[in-house]
Amino acid sequence: MRQLRKSLFHLIMVAFCFVWIYPFLWMLSAAFKTDGEFFSNGLKLIPDRFKLDNFKRAWEGANFDTYFLNSVVISASTILLVLFATATCGYIMGRHSFRGKKIVFALLVASMFVPMEFAIIPIFDLIKNLGLMNNLFGVILAEAGGNHIIFILLFATFFREIPNELEEAAVVDGSGFFRTFAQIMLPLAKPVVGSVTIMQFIWSWNSFMLPLILTLSKPDLRPLAVGLYALQGENVVDWTGIAAGGAIAILPIVVIFLLLQRFFVDGVAGAVKG
Amino acid sequence: MGRTGESKKSRRKVQAWCWLFLTPTLLLFLAFQAWPILAGIYYAMLDWSGLTSDSTFVGTDNFVSVANDYYFWNAFKNSFKFMLGVVPLHLIVPLILAVILNRPGLRGASFYRTLIFLPVVTTTSIVGIIMVFIWGSDGAVNGALQSIGLLDAPIDWLGDPSWSMFTVVIVSVWKNLGINMVYWLAGLQSIPKELYEAAEMDGARGSKLFFRITVPLLLPIGAVILLLNVVNSLKAFDLIKTMTNGGPFFATDVVSTYIYRYAFSSEMGLPQLGYAAAAGIFFAVTICVLAVAQNVITKRIKGRSSL
Fold this sequence. Notes:
The structure holds two protein chains of two kinds. Chain A is mainly alpha-helical. Helices cover 77% and strands 0% of the residues of chain A. Chain B has one domain: MetI-like fold, CATH 1.10.3720.10. At the A-B interface, helix 1, helix 4, helix 5, helix 6 and helix 7 of A face helix 1, helix 4, helix 5, helix 7 and helix 9 of B.
């Protein structure tokens, strides 16, 4: 009887999870279908034949090769910038005291509650006036400019726990402030670097509003998230092509999440607990 | 961290290093947080298209126009409708799932957790476009409901103004439920097991354990989850922009899509950056007031219960 109840529970959970991820399975299957099959048998999950035509059309015809490269460049650069800024700031916040520390900290925390989505117009104008509308650097900078107090706190908490002896030994060996940070402290913080990298990757890869606004007049600079939206606007009837484009955009992030999910879930949970 | 025996000079050197290390974060903060807030307030007082440099200072005129615009209040109401639809579901459903998946010795728990979490990491704008198909007239939702006999004729989930808000709420809940489940799981795992053991010794069981121990101890983290969801749902843009673009007939037009239309879209003729900035500030202030109010109320309740 208990065994039966257990099996029933798992049966319900598996069915629930199947329905839960059905939209992604549907997208993947539609990406392989021909137009004819899509319209005659749209709900079937296993296509008759796995044809790559839709992917080819999206990749070459609809510029998804460019969009993909843009997404990679934007995400990678934003991660590097954010890591650099939050690691240095977190190091100071966790291990050093200086005049005005409380004010700096209060400002960073308070700005977390300001919905910057509604201050998008000055950001747009700032990037325009800096002359960065014509290259990816504008998107990267605006993207990295978001609030990262969570990452700063993760670094600060980690660096605070490192014993003083380690630092003192380094200073005795003649290591300066910067070398102590870069060669001794930062390598120890690998788990935090991992969490920040994957979280920032997911946020940059998925970001939509900022790149949409900053690439309105420059279609060549669009990342995938904006590219598919534009494709849908221009070509309403190519459903299988849109499904293929969606798969190109979503598969990398799903694969990376499945491989590195521990870092991500731990980081998120740590952020809300702290 | 007092360091005795350090000379004044080297202490000053350390201070300089501190500020140097803070510089990247402070520069980004000044450029992309402090400046946009200040500049936004100024822009809101201009009659300015954003395309040319000629603008006239109009004081509070834009705010008055915003407050008198029927479509702004429609969007304002819709933002709150969306929030009130999303937030209760985000508090209750993920908590139930977290309690189910947190049972000790449950096989496959991490597998289920991963699948439920999956939509969270995917791109919202792309999910929105895919959902237009799934919830379309001949999409999967209508297909499934018709084949089990719940529906006679397909519903136009996104094209019918009386259903469109419901549809975006459901999709938004599906998209973000996983992250709330992880928050709740973190809360559940912070409750000491001894408490349950002691209560069981006293004869408490099942739902009594849940309402007497789990719920009260989860209240603090619940307040954080509530705040996060209220703020995030009022900011929603990506999903609504891609699924309905505020339509049909402005039925899902929220403040963020309203602002976008005035600032960046050509639908309305010449853009009105000043006017859009005013609407943005108006709503940002609303959200801040809500967030602060919620903080104060939770602190009050906490303070009273500890007496």
